[in-house]
Every structure is written in C-alpha cells, then in structure tokens.
Write a structure and sequence with these properties.
Helix content is 44%, strand content 14%. It contains 13 helices and 13 strands. Helix 2 runs antiparallel to helix 6, helix 3 runs antiparallel to helix 5 and helix 5 packs antiparallel against helix 6. The chain is elongated, with a radius of gyration of 33 Å.
C-alpha cells in the first residue's frame, strides 16, 4: 500500500509541475499544435515517470558470500504460507475501479447519444468529412470525420459553421479528446489532469476559430454566431461551438498572434523534465558481484529411498562442471529483492531440489528462509536452470537430491549486524 500511495503522490507532483510550466510559458504564447502536444505528453509522462527506474547513481558495494555447507537436519521444516490480501488493498482496488466507472460511464453515454443523433438524419458524403443533417435541434459538433448539424440551420450561418467543424476534423481533435478522456479515467483522482483536459479543449477551439477567421470571415459576425450557438446542445465528448470558454475565445480573436521566443519557451520545459526524472526515476546502479568458490553439500539420505538414489557412482554434471559450477551459476543470477534491500534483511535461504533421470531440475523446496521475498528470488533462479547430465548408478540414470544454501548479506557499515555481503542486489535505491 505504501508503494501505491507513493506512486499516486509522485504522479500528482509530476502533473502539477508540468501544468505550472504550461501556464507560465506556453499557454496562448506558442503555436496551438505545440500546446496540444504538450498537454497530452505531460499527462502521459506524469503516468510513466514515477514507474521508470533508470540506473544512474553509483550503487553500494555489494559482494556475494560463500555458501556454508548445510544439511537438512538443522534447518526448519518449511516456508510460511503466503499471507492473504489485506482488506485495505481490496478496498483500494474497489475505490479506484469505482472512480474509473464514474468517469467512463458519462463518456460512454455521450457516444450513445451521438449514435442516436444519426437515426433518421440526412447523411452526405464529402471529400474531407461526412455531413449528418439531423432533424433534432442540436448545436453543431464534430466527431472524428463526421460533422453533425441541425437541418434548420440558416443558410447564411452554415458555411461558417462547417469551416469551424472541418477544422476540428482536419486537426484530428476527436482523437485527442478520446486520449484525454482515457487519461482522466485512469488518473481520475488527479486534479491537474482535469485542468489539462480543460486547457486542451480551449486550445482546440482557439485553433478552429483561427482557421475560420483566416478564411476571411468577419470577426463580428463570427462572435454573434458563437453566442447564438450557445443555446444549442451537443454531447461533450465531441468538438463543437458550444462548450468553450467564450470570453477567452473572443479575446484570442481580437489579439494578434505574436508567438515570440517560441523556441526559448519550449526549451524551458527541459529543466522541469530533467528535475522530475532526477527526483522520481533516476536510481542507483547495482554493483558487480564478486563470486567466491562455493561449498555445497549433497543430501545424503533422501526422504523416499525408493525414488531418490542415496548416492551415485557418477554424479550429475551441470554444463560440464560439478555442483560448485552450478552454485556459481546461481550466484551470478540471484539478486537482492528491492523489498528486502529496503528493509535491510539478511540471512540464509536453504533450497533442496532433485536432478531427475532426464536431467531436469525438479521438486524445488525451501526448507529455511528469513523472508518470503528471498525465497521467491532463489526459486526464480533455480527454475531457469538448464538441463543437467543426470547421475548414473551401474550405468543407469538415477535421481539425486541436493541442498543449496545461499547467504544474503549486505556489505557496509549501515547494514544490520555490521559488515557482510549479499548476493548481487539488482534492486535500485533512490
């Protein structure tokens, strides 16, 4: 739960920083296409940056400890069973899922509304878009490559409205709306995502207004048309003339586009991005392990004598080597789990396994462990083992059982219990 809350906090901080940069440097000061791209990218990066783990900082000095021979007589019986999922984890998932539904259901209803509007409408296929003239009195809107307009729209208003909606179609604003709605559903608890979605809607309307005015339309006539369209209706997920911040649009229509120092303003985004990566993504590198010569022990008496050979004339071979070669192979691949490294856990994990008659490694059991995360790491590596050359007794392949102790210790003065060593820790520390 702590990791989840940390992610929520970091994601909110990232989106807040990106939104502040947009409001200070880019909003209505750079070309609209850059504003649209930035708003979408900022929300996506806020989702991803806290999940990144980029090894940059030097890691701690970690080495691999030699294994001490261990028999099964002086180790505990078994690993504790996995604890059930805590109630708060279930409650968190339910709350998160409910939030997604609250955001997604209205958007889905709007899609159904769009489908209903097409029923009984006159559909005209154009080169750039499809025009749907519906008998239902609605405000003009567009969705992907389709423009929806009321059949009773006056002829003098129709060309200007189509210019506005065709601009939405040409710039693919509907795709951006769908992406942003998805982000809002995934990050519904983040207020900066909702603010970014509102700013994206503004930019799309500013861009469409600019295209209309550049075509030669009178500013006065266009403003009157916008005020008239405010009395109409349209689904929110579409692009249209109604749901916009009208006062800001009117100001943009009467303001010259200077867009000075665009490259300098865009360059101002870099420090914020680098700072967030340093704070939440850059981590320490894992140290190269030092592998000493291990000592391992063969289980002398199997639990089931009829299935496990007590000894073999020719012992199993791993990649042409003996059990020590396999132990080095394991040590080179085992990594200190991140959770164990943060808690500074140390101790010995003793695993038993059987080399079957076909050379496969099977029947992995953990008979001693200080923590479940360490056991899972050892099991993960053992399951990756290549096939062995099986042991033989009187020329016939037999099963041989081994015990393999692995010591997890952390080097350094801050490690519990003083200096020690650990199988290479791949976990990253911030």
């Amino acid at each position: 739960m702590k990791e989840t809350l940390t992610y929520l906090f970091e994601s909110t901080v990232c989106s807040g920083v990106f939104f502040a940069v947009y409001a200070a440097l880019l909003d209505r000061r750079t070309p609209f296409r850059w504003c649209r791209f930035y708003l979408l990218a900022a929300v996506g990066l806020s989702l991803v940056i806290p999940l990144l783990r980029i090894p940059v900082w030097p890691g701690p000095a970690l080495t691999m400890a030699p294994c001490v021979p261990a028999g099964l007589a002086d180790v505990p019986a078994a690993v504790a069973e996995q604890t059930p999922t805590e109630w708060w984890a279930v409650a968190f998932r339910m709350i998160y899922g409910a939030g997604i539904l609250v955001v997604a259901i209205p958007a889905f209803r709007q899609l159904l509304t769009i489908r209903r509007i097409r029923r009984g409408a006159q559909i005209l296929r154009m080169d750039e878009y499809t025009l749907v003239r519906t008998p239902e009195r609605i405000g003009a809107c567009s969705f992907f490559r389709t423009i929806y307009i009321w059949q009773g729209t006056p002829d003098e208003e129709l060309p200007v409205i189509l210019l506005h909606e065709a601009s939405h179609v040409r710039h693919r604003h509907s795709v951006e709306r769908i992406v942003m709605e998805t982000m809002k559903a995934m990050l519904w608890w983040n207020p900066f995502v909702w603010l970014s979605a509102g700013r994206l809607n503004e930019v799309e309307e500013f861009e469409a207004d600019g295209d209309v005015l550049r075509s030669g339309c009178s500013v006065r006539f266009y403003m009157q048309l916008i005020l008239k369209q405010l009395l109409g209706y349209r689904p929110d997920i579409t692009n249209g003339l109604r749901n916009s911040r009208t006062k800001k649009r009117f100001i943009m229509m009467t303001t010259n586009d200077s867009h000075r120092y665009v490259l300098l303003r865009l360059a101002g985004v870099a420090p914020a991005l680098i700072g967030l990566l340093c704070a939440f993504s850059f981590t320490t590198r894992a140290a190269e392990p030092v592998v000493p010569e291990p000592e391992t022990s063969i289980v002398g008496a199997p639990e089931q004598p009829e299935e496990v050979s007590p000894e073999a004339e020719v012992m199993p071979k791993f990649q042409g080597g003996d059990l020590n070669a396999f132990h080095r192979w394991v040590q080179m691949r085992v990594r200190m789990p991140e959770a164990a490294l943060k808690r500074k856990l140390q101790g010995r994990v003793v695993a038993t396994f059987t080399i079957e008659q076909d050379g496969t490694l099977d029947d992995i059991q953990i008979v001693q462990t200080p923590d479940r995360s360490l056991s899972e790491e050892v099991i993960r590596v053992l399951k990756q083992s290549d096939k062995w050359t099986p042991g033989t007794q009187k020329g016939e392949a037999v099963r041989v059982k081994y015990a393999l102790p692995i010591d997890f210790r952390i080097c350094g003065a801050d490690a519990p219990g003083g200096q020690g060593s650990a199988p290479a820790a791949s976990a990253d520390e911030r």
